[in-house]
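INTERNAL AUDIT FORM
Audit reference: QA-55
Scope: verify that the stored structure record matches its stored sequence.
Auditor: D.O.
Record contents follow.
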Amino acid sequence: MRILLILVALLAVACGRTTPKTGTPVQTKAVDPTFETEKILENWAGQMYVMAKDLGYVPANLNEIPADGWGRSTRYARINATTSNLCSAGLDGVWDTNDDTCQKVISGNLNPTRNPDWTPAKMEAICTMLKKGDISMSMQTDGKSLLSRVPAEMKPEFIACSQSVVINGEQRAIEAEAAWDIHRAYILYFLLWSLTDKPNWSSEAKRLEKWDQAGAKRIPVVRAGTVYKDFESNEIAAEDKYKGWFLVVGNVRSVATTFDGSPYVEMATGTREFRKIQCLFSPGFKSRLRVMKKDEQVQIPCRGGRRLIGNPVLECRLGSTFLVNKDQTEALVAVGD
């Protein structure tokens, strides 16, 4: 009986379904190729605007461009430094007739100097930047100077617009290095090389590049005895005075480690035997401190400090000293990590 009821229910469901009539075509909305082409070109315009902004320039050619509403190839053109357009041949499929459809894109706030192609717009932009003193465009990373990139027919114009920068550049670089403004001196020498391709300025730039990349800082030079006396005189004032980096100079008295394994160097202060300063390092410097010898004069970058059992204890690192002034009061130092 239960099986019979199930069969009856299934039959009722089957009978209740509507059987579609055969031979009735499915209605689909026709796509207007002209309207579709307009949509394609408008979408491309938005993408092109973003692309040009990201690149900094309007490219001369594109690797990929969309087909129009008829599935035919479109045509891209760069009109000028900020403008481009994409065209369809239209309904008749013939180029340069009245039914051609085009979408123009005007991109603003571009940087034509980033364009790998040497266009008149790029040359004009570079000359404008040089006249304004903007030298960032000269920094190249592949070992080629800016002058070597300029096409032969544009070199006279390039040399003419860069002449004033070259004439004044060397003196400014010398003054910057004398003032220990190493980053500026490095940039200026690099600029001079990039504008002239002369190897002597390349050598100067490479010499200063090492200092610049090492993060060299201008810091005071202080004798170990002076540090001790300052802390002995007024610990609070000394902590404030030595909170920044300074180069402490003195003779090694001993090299040892604390109870927790941190290495330190004791410096003699030139006064009594028990008066000393302690240069405390992190454990990572232990292997580099092995070469230090007793009574050897050393220069160690340190900062901060406190008195422990009467003697100053400083936070120190090893570093590279590039320059020390004649008065032995300041040094150009790269503090190690």
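Auditor finding: record pair retrieved intact. Residues 243 and 304 are 4 Å apart (CA to CA).
Action required: none
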